[in-house]
Amino acid sequence: MEYYVIGDEDTVLGFSLVGVSGTACHNETEAKLAWEHALENKNYAIIIITEDVASFIRQTVDRFLFSESFPLVVEIPKRGESSTRDLKALVNEAIGVSL
After folding, report:
1. Is the dihedral of CA 44, 33, 18, 75 positive or negative?
2. What domains appear along the chain, each with residue ranges and CATH number?
3. pTM, rounded to two decimals
4. I need a labelling partner for 52 at 20 to 30 A (CA). Which of 1, 5, 25, 65 fits?
């Protein structure tokens, strides 16, 4: 089970430092391509996507958030935005169990 991150360059770079691969996106076309790439690789069990990039492909992301069971999708704030929860809390909320 692997993670895959889709977001801005800083987010993708940050995750790459801990061994998580990903794609930086700046527009809807790039977001769609990154999403398709993530779905093609069955090893990616958790897709982490920043809220700003998710907004480019909102309908697709929402379908996975609310109806699909695999892969797990976790939306995180983009770099620089504050959140009251850390990544572990976001994943725990998404899967419904505590890791």
Report:
1. negative
2. 2-95 (3.40.50.10580)
3. 0.80
4. 1
Cis before 77 (ω within 30)? no
Q: Which amino acid is at 6?
A: I
Sheet containing 72-76, strands listed edge to edge, beginning at the edge strand earlier in sequence: 21-24, 2-7, 44-50, 72-76
Q: What is the 3-state secondary structure (H, E, C) of the chain?
A: CEEEEEECHHHHHHHHCCCCEEEECCCHHHHHHHHHHHHHCCCEEEEEEEHHHHHHHHHHHHHHHHCCCCCEEEEECCCCCCCCCCHHHHHHHHHCCCC
Q: Which two tokens stand for residue 20?
A: 């998580």
Name the pLDDT band for 78 (thresholds 50, 70, 90): confident
The pair of structure tokens assigned to 53 is 């990039």
